[in-house]
Amino acid sequence: MRSLKQQILILLLGSLVLMATSFLVVLGLYMKDRAVTAAIIKVKADLATCEEIINKTYPGAWSEQEGNLYKGNAKISLNNDLVDHLSSLTGDTVTLFLGDTRVATTIRGSNGERAIGTKVSNNVIQTVLKDGQTYVGEANVVGQWHQTGYVPLRAENGKIIGIFYAGISHAYEQEIITRSLITMVELGLALTVLIVLLTWFFLKKVIISPLHNIMLGTRDVATGHLTEKVKISGAKEIGELEDAFNQMVEQIQSLTEEINRVTSNNPVNGTEVKQTFTPGYMPMPSLNLVGNIGEAELPKGLHQATLGQIVQFLQVNRRPLSAEEVAEGVKLTRVTVRRYLEFLEHSGALKSEQKYGTVGRPVKLFIPL
């Protein structure tokens, strides 16, 4: 069975991976739509820009002379410098058609040569050459899909004699989208690692470490070595678990003390059991001399180090104190502290008196001598 740490880590990583995957899918679809919209806007702007450059560079009307496309007196057919210049300015593929045939283009075929002499797609022929309208949208350009724009070229008499084209390949769009997604993935991974580390630190501090401390406390109870309260900080539920555990410890120690008291007052196999406090021990005249008590002189279950800790606290706070106040001060359980205080009272280093309040049971106060 997996530990709680492993289950929380798996749940955390699984949630983050699912969230990141969903985010990237939605982002990819969104970017694709935005890329298409942006490409259409760019194609329209590039068509207008290129037409303006051509008109200023080559004044005059479009015409067909001896099977070639002219602009004014300039021959445009096979004018690679023109299409390459327009392509470098816009980043688009650029083509000039005479009728439906490419006569100057940056488009290249499968052999790497310029696709001179190839035809425009049929849907463009209908829209541009026959209907005389501008075509903007997807089109198959020499076997590759592009986001395209086609405008008719008109002779001086208004007759349509060719087409000007500018377009962006889908491969280029896809490259931009892929590059953007890779950047987002890298940023997302860095952010995910940061979130995992912060969340793991938080879970370890607030849940795992407190539960581990309580687990160690249960082992101490099982072996009979618990003398201090379990002190943890965490969420409200963890705090309630801490209180419940400490109450259980006090009840167990109270029950153990009661059993010891009962067995000490009854013969076992004909032999009397020693009393809770060592018989014959001489009362101490003051709290300051308690530190002289050796480990061997203490009753069973009491330890010199713990006694010294309680005595030091009483010396610093020389006033009537309840067992609960001392327990809070030295970070021990109330039942454990009460055994030491009763021993000190029996030894003559403390005296006790009952303090009666308006409500509830009276509180036993221990007064240093």
From TrEMBL:
Gene Ontology CC annotations of this record: plasma membrane
Domain HAMP: 205-257
Coiled-coil parts of chain: 238-265
Keywords, alphabetical: Cell membrane, Coiled coil, Membrane, Transmembrane, Transmembrane helix
Primary location: membrane
Subcellular location(s) per record: Cell membrane
UniProt protein name: Methyl-accepting chemotaxis protein
